[in-house]
Amino acid sequence: MLGDKKKLSIVPVDIQVNSAGRLGLTLIETLVAIAIFAIGLEGFTLLFINAWRNNSYTLEMGQSSMAVSRGVNVITGYLRSVRQGDNGAYPVELADGNELSVYSDYDRDGITERLHIYKSSSDILMGVTNPTETMPKSYPDGDQEVLMIATRIVNLESEPLFYYYDKEYAGASSQLPLTAPVNVSRVRLIKIHLKINIDPNRAPDNIELRTFVEMRNLNDYDRIK
Prior knowledge:
By secondary structure, this protein is α+β, with helices and mostly antiparallel strands. The protein has one domain (55-169, 178-222). It is 26% helix and 23% strand. The protein has a five-stranded antiparallel sheet, with helices on one face. A three-stranded antiparallel sheet has the order 6-7-8, covered by helices on one side.
């Protein structure tokens, strides 16, 4: 009959979730995840340390290079302009492996100072002495003022700072420097050799710089007969 209504029956379905479908992690899975994270963290840490060391190496190399270059440039500038002392003394007073005394107007005040450049421990110092104001001019003994030129010098005892050559030097490696004690009247060219290391206990290795300085005014003495 059209008026009859069909009864719908709902059959209950038994839904079961097995252990593999549970939310969350088991203890073993947690330990594995921690282990993977620790390995990744260790790798990142090693990568960071390596990058930091490389950057530190580069920075230290730059610092060392700048330090040695600045020290050599300072010395070179003073030596190029050596001249006769205000007391009439020869431009070069002392020429030793780690000690050099010359006359030069280093501060450009028109007065010729005596410059005493020498190595003290791991430093290169320069003593400055002015002539007396009274006539006849003379230079007091000792250094009136001491300036720092370079530091952290690591030249060995067998590696002097200064090498001296006479007018016969033509640049050949076979030509040896003047032997000590050096006759200062023969000196025309000086080779400066500096080795610097910011921290000898770690890389980078020593930074070395060699340069030749021609003392221009000494060429005038070659023409004196």
